[in-house]
Design a protein that fits this description.
mainly alpha; single chain; 5% strand; 2 strands; Recoverin, domain 1; 4 helices
Length: 87
Amino acid sequence: MMHDELTLITGDQLAKLHGYSSVTSSCRTWWKSIGIQSLPGRNNIYDPRQVRERMDLVAGLQRTAPVNKEGKPSLTEQRRARKNAEG
C-alpha cells in the first residue's frame, strides 16, 4: 500500500484548495450539494479520493477503467460493448 493512499485532508485544507480562506457555511453548503462528506465519525476530515471523484462527476469527467495487463477487455467491458452494439 502506498503512503498517498492513506492521506486525509482537513476541512481547512479542502477549503483553501477550493478557493475559500477557511471553512465557511457557504463552502459546506457547496460541498453538501455536490456530495462531498467528511469521514464517518471524523468531523472535518475528508478523503481526497472521494473529493476528486465528486469533483470529476460535477465537471462531467469520467475516469477510464484501469487497463488490465492482458490487454483484453474485462467481462463487464465486453458486456457493455455488446449492449451498445445491439442498440
